[in-house]
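Good morning,

Both structures are done.
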Amino acid sequence: MKKLLFLIGCSWVVQLNAQVLTPEAFIEQVRSFHPIAKQANIKVEKANAALLSARGGFDPVIEVDADRKTFDGKNYYFRTNPEFKVPTRLGGLDLKAGVENNGGLFLNNSITRGQSSYLGLEMPLLKGLLIDQRRANLQQAALFSQQSQQDRLKMQNDLLFEAYNAYWQWAGSYQLFSIYRQFLQVSLDRFRLVKLAYNNGDRALIDTIEALTQVQQFQMLQADAKVRLTTAQLELANFLWNDRDTAYLLNANLVPDTVQFQMYMAVDNPDELINRANADNPSLRSLNFELEALEVERKLKYQSMLPTLNFKANLLNQGYNVFKDFGGALLQNNYVWGVQFKIPIFLREGQGAYRQAKLKIAETTYELNAKQWSTANKIRAYYAESVLLKEQIAAAQQAYNGYTALLKAESLRFQNGESSLFLLNTRENKVIETAEKLIQLRAKYLKATYGISWAAGNLR
């Protein structure tokens, strides 16, 4: 037993001298370099680019319309009309100003000859007054930009949960392999001593067989633990990427933080977590933004059922100064205006589009309600599991301490010739069995504890 304690102490010294990959450093690396984390950032950038494009619908526009016709030596007509147009977000109103220079033998009589200028507006009076496609695109793009932020957090939340699970599985596999390695070394030393005692006539042949059987059993257990450790290291390597977007395998000199593996984590009350999740969970917030975008779509589709009634008017003046001689005479005499009216007889297209928009809202609302309930139940389930596992860990730790004390006592009795090798091996096997169970419970406990934060959407 003294030999076992010495080897455990040496193992701690080796670990302290090795390069420890802490969970904080590992998660920070995953957050910074993993492709999924970078994809999540690209998703936000794409949404911001779409928002920039939607804002372009309100960019001022300069347009020049010019044409000329000359035939058989005659100047039929020439027209030059540069125009500056400013779309606004106020009721679909568009402001415009322009100058004209028109002439020719056969110029249309409705066109003003010579140089003139105008200042005017265009706006809808029914359909498109409250919202139109340009304003809907801008509002939805702004909402989708905010939704993309939540989608990024959701992708990061899922990624970090998987990364934490891989890390603690590696930590548990490493600790189990270390325990088997330590017990294998103790059993090898005992076998050499028993064999030496047999050669001196102090031990029976059956004792050497018993000691060898224990060595062989620990060799098989250590080999199995090595396989599990290698598998855990490869699972962890799925999350190892560097700043050059290159994946790499885990360095053999790196060891996990087994100190934190033994610690308990503070967990908030599940009711408080559920309340915060309803407000902050990125999956739920993403659906809320989607609902707001669908509401914008519903308002737009409702407008499609209204008649089209557009109004346009221009103030006119001779020359290139539209405000020259501005006054009552100008407002009474120098203007042009018009209206455009259109209404479908059956309104079936508008009614169908509006009904589809309402059904999409209902569908997404049901999805949100189901997601809220499943999120709350996941938090409750992981919380209950973590509490139960904490109790099991406490019981397993007591059993481990008890079996370790019995092994120590049995080892002293064996050294004094008061016990058999069979009893000593039995005590060792119970310690090993309990240690393995304890490690499994701690790995499950950490997964359940991080599962609470994952379900609440708090892993950032």
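Second structure follows.
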Amino acid sequence: MDRSILHIDMNSCYASIECLHRPEIRHLPVAVGGDVEARHGIILAKNELAKAQGVRTGETLWQARQKCPELVVVPPRYPLYLRFSRLAREIYAAYTDRIEPFGLDEVWLDVTDSGVFGDAVEIAETIRRRVKFELGITVSIGVSFNKVFAKLGSDYKKPDAVTVLDRENYRTVLWPLPVETLLYVGPATARKLRARCIRTIGDLAATDPELLHSWLGKMGYVLHAFANGNDTAPVATLGEEAVIKSVGNSTTTPRDLTCLEDVNIVFYVLAESVAARMRENGLRAKTVQISLRDSDLFSFERQCRLAVPSCLASELHDVAMELVRSNYRFQKPLRSVGLRGVELVPLEGNVQLSLFEDPLRREKRERLEDTVDNLRRRFGPGAVTRAVTMCDPSLGTLNPKDDHTIHPVGYFKPA
């Protein structure tokens, strides 16, 4: 028997919620955008009026304003969006406990065993009406027999709609769509496929999976299965959490970083955020990974394994700086940088001690950083700062830990 899967998309809920809370702008094209002064000036979400004038999520504010001069841009308010997301999930929980978030404003539901409330389409229509009436925002819902097709269904018709994709109609509805509409076919993959005359989902479904594997690696098999409706991934149970595989922060800096001294300040800020978040989750990192993006938006990553797993900001910072010195020559200034701890192990687990370091000294440093965490929790992030970050307040006062509110969720879960 086929499963009954719903995918619910809250239709650019950031913009919808802002219009709900600001009646004076409801009749205008509205977008939620980043801070131009801090160079986070991109469109995060837009309402239907802005969309009708060609405004797209992800483009810069100046590009959006060229298309729509009367565009009203408001700053994001993540705590408010999180509140609406939680309220919506309370509605979903009335019909099933198999609820799996996909980002802040999207979610999968498995209603296979929820027949007491009607069939999947009836449940979808009920949820659509309840969210609109109780929260004042619209959702689009895809109904299908797997997660990938349910997501395609929620994207197929917007806003405030329910689309059914079953085994009888998915070939006629989905296969003519552009290949990039399929989950995990990004711009680079789409270019590779189009270069080989694979332009639609149907073309992808009809291609030999071994050929796709030769072009795309293991994702070739995955995308072939997706296109043919052979996705069998389960919907997670409410409250089920995936194992944390990495902890990181990145930031687009208020100005370009032109030298090692600039990068040194930002990496101290990032390292303290990453280390504090690892300690909160009871983790250490075996490997430090950095990402660099220059002023031409060319980006790359490098990583280095630590001698001893660590959650110390100073150690994460030192390794990150060594990676920068070894791999970047500042032929172009840097626009954004990131730092990530990967290969995580439990904080209380066994650690191989080094013959060249005093374990008691390391323990004291960990206690010191714990104390700093407590002070910042009580008195704010600026209660204790490193002297080096005061050399340039525009860089040293960044607060990536508190800015890291929304955690993107991947489709694939660790085994």
